[in-house]
C-alpha cells in the first residue's frame, strides 16, 4: 500500500484509532475523509487537521450507506483507499439478556454488516482506480475472545474471515486487501482510554505507521503487543492465555 498520493476514507475517524490513523495519513499528504455519526467529533478532528474533510454516516442504516457511498464517490472521485474502522464494543451477560438482544444486534450491524455493506457499495468505484486498498480493522480478540464481550469478539472473528475471502476474490484486481489487528489500546471503546494495561494510542499508531513505512505491506498488520493473542493457537498457549485474559478480573481485563 502506497502511503502518499491517496484519497482515503476512514470510518469512525473522529476518535480513537480512526482519528490517529487519519492524522498520520493526512500528515503524509493524503486527502483524508473521515466519517462517523458524531458531527462534533468529526468537526473537532478536521479543525485540528486543516484540509481534512468529514462526512456524517450512520453505519447501521443500509440505505444511508448506499447514499453515502454515492456521495463520497461523487465528491471525491479519486477515492482509492477505504479503511473500515468504525465499531462498538459492549459487555453482555448471556445469562441475563433481554429478549430483544438489542446490544448484540447493534454490535453485529455496526461491526460486521456495516463494513460489508460499505465495501460492497464502494467496490465498483474502487475497481476503477489504477491502485486501491481496503483495510479492515479487526482485533486481537478475533483470535482469542474476551468472554465479557462475546458478540464483539464474534464480529471481529467474522471480519477476519471476510477479509481473507475478500482478498482472495480481489486477487486479480488493482485492490489490495489488508487487515489491521489492534491489541487492547487506550481508546474510549469500553472506557479503556485511561487504563494503564492498554497500549497507549500514540504508541500503537506510531508502530503501525512504522510497519507500513518500512515493510512490504503485510496482509495482516500486527504490532508486537497483539502477537500473543493473534498467534495463541499456533504457539500452543491458547488455553493459558484464554484463562489469563478471562479470569484475571470479573470484567475480563
List keywords for this structure.
alpha/beta; 253 residues; Rossmann fold; 9 helices; 45% helix; globular; 7 strands; 7-stranded parallel β-sheet
Written description of the protein model:
The chain has nine helices and seven strands, in the order E-H-E-H-E-H-E-H-E-H-E-H-E-H-H-H. The protein is α/β, with parallel strands linked by helices. It has a seven-stranded parallel β-sheet, sandwiched between helices. Helix 1 (16-27) packs across helix 6 and helix 4 (102-127) packs parallel to helix 5. The chain is globular, with a radius of gyration of 18 Å. The two termini are 34 Å apart.
Element order, helices and strands? EHEHEHEHEHEHEHHH
How many structural units, i.e. domains? 1
Q: How many β strands by DSSP? A: 7
Distance between the termini: 34 Å
DSSP strand content: 5-15%
Largest sheet: 7 strands, parallel
Strand order of the largest sheet: 3-2-1-4-5-6-7
Shape: globular
Unreliable runs, pLDDT <50, ≥5 residues?
Answer: none
| Average predicted confidence as pLDDT | 95
Radius of gyration: 18 Å
Q: Find the CATH topology.
A: Rossmann fold
Approximate helicity band: 40-55%
| SS-based class | alpha/beta
How many distinct helices?
Answer: 9
What would you say the CATH architecture is? 3-Layer(aba) Sandwich
Q: Determine and state the CATH class.
A: Alpha Beta
Amino acid at each position: 500500500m502506497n502511503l502518499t498520493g491517496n484519497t482515503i476514507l476512514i470510518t469512525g475517524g473522529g476518535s480513537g484509532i480512526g482519528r490517529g490513523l487519519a492524522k498520520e495519513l493526512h500528515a503524509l499528504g493524503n486527502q483524508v475523509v473521515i466519517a462517523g455519526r458524531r458531527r462534533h467529533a468529526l468537526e473537532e478532528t478536521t479543525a485540528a487537521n486543516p484540509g481534512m474533510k468529514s462526512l456524517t454516516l450512520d453505519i447501521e442504516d443500509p440505505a444511508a450507506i448506499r447514499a453515502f457511498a454515492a456521495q463520497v464517490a461523487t465528491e471525491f472521485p479519486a477515492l482509492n483507499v477505504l479503511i473500515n474502522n468504525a465499531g462498538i464494543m459492549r459487555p453482555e451477560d448471556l445469562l441475563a439478556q433481554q429478549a430483544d438482544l438489542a446490544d448484540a444486534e447493534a454490535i453485529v450491524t455496526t461491526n460486521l454488516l456495516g463494513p460489508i455493506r460499505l465495501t460492497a457499495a464502494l467496490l465498483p468505484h474502487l475497481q476503477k482506480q489504477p491502485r486501491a486498498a481496503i483495510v479492515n480493522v479487526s482485533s486481537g480478540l478475533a483470535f482469542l475472545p474476551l468472554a465479557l464481550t462475546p458478540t464483539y469478539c464474534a464480529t471481529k472473528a467474522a471480519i477476519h474471515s471476510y477479509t481473507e475471502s475478500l482478498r482472495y476474490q480481489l486477487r486479480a484486481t488493482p485492490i489490495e486487501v489488508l487487515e489491521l489487528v489492534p491489541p487492547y489500546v487506550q481508546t474510549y471503546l469500553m472506557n479503556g482510554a485511561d487504563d494503564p494495561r492498554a497500549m497507549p494510542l500514540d504508541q500503537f499508531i506510531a508502530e503501525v505507521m512504522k510497519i507500513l513505512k518500512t515493510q512490504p505491506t503485510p496482509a495482516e498488520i500486527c504490532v508486537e503487543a497483539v502477537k500473543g493473542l493473534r498467534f495463541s493457537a499456533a504457539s500452543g498457549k491458547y488455553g493459558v492465555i484464554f484463562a489469563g485474559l478471562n479470569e484475571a478480573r470479573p470484567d475480563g481485563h
